[in-house]
């Protein structure tokens, strides 16, 4: 691997890019932010799947036949209430929501598929942000947008390479053939 400061360091897009120019402390801080954000999504997925009694009552789990989208989307009020109420409880919406939450959580925690996670995060968090409009405490900013921008920044900084499986993932034949999966 070449040194980033080296005049011979490669600057073209590849899975063999040189190390990040960020300090080791910054890389670890971003990795910890990645893992924390991943846990938020994985926990929400597990709670809705299993009814762990936090946000989802024990008898309200998806495995018990309940919809993970019905409670929230069914009670949305505001700018896009009609759109989100129509999605509430739909099988396709439940599956997309749960796949998004679980996939985003696993991807961020493991540090793999960070680009795909960022794109999925834009879709999932963008929809959750839209469903929250108008916001109660701020004209436009809430945690959905903060998480969305954070997911993009983590992918851009290759935060999965530190305290994660990002480097190993990048070396797989699949990712070498399809670099957008990095």
Automatic annotation (TrEMBL):
Stretch list, region Disordered: 1-20
Transmembrane segments annotated in the record for this chain: 25-46, 95-125, 145-166
Biased composition range(s): Polar residues: 1-12
Record key words, sorted: Membrane, Transmembrane, Transmembrane helix
Protein name per Swiss-Prot or TrEMBL: DoxX family protein
Native source species: Stackebrandtia nassauensis (strain DSM 44728 / CIP 108903 / NRRL B-16338 / NBRC 102104 / LLR-40K-21)
Taxonomic placement: Bacteria, Bacillati, Actinomycetota, Actinomycetes, Glycomycetales
């Amino acid at each position: 691997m070449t040194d980033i400061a080296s005049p011979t360091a490669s600057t073209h897009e590849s899975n063999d890019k040189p190390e990040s120019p960020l300090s080791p402390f910054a890389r670890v801080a971003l990795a910890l932010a990645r893992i924390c954000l991943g846990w938020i999504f994985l926990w929400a997925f597990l709670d809705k799947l299993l009814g762990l009694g936090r946000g989802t009552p024990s008898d309200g789990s998806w495995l018990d036949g309940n919809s993970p989208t019905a409670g929230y989307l069914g009670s949305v009020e505001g700018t896009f209430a009609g759109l989100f109420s129509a999605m509430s409880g739909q099988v396709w919406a439940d599956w997309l929501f749960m796949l998004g939450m679980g996939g985003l959580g696993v991807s961020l925690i493991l540090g793999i598929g960070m680009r795909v996670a960022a794109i999925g995060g834009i879709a999932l968090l963008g929809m959750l942000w839209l469903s929250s409009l108008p916001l109660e405490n701020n004209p436009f900013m809430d945690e959905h947008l903060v998480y969305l921008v954070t997911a993009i920044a983590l992918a851009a900084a290759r935060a999965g390479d530190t305290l994660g499986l990002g480097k190993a993932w990048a070396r797989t034949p699949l990712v070498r053939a399809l670099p957008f999966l990095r």
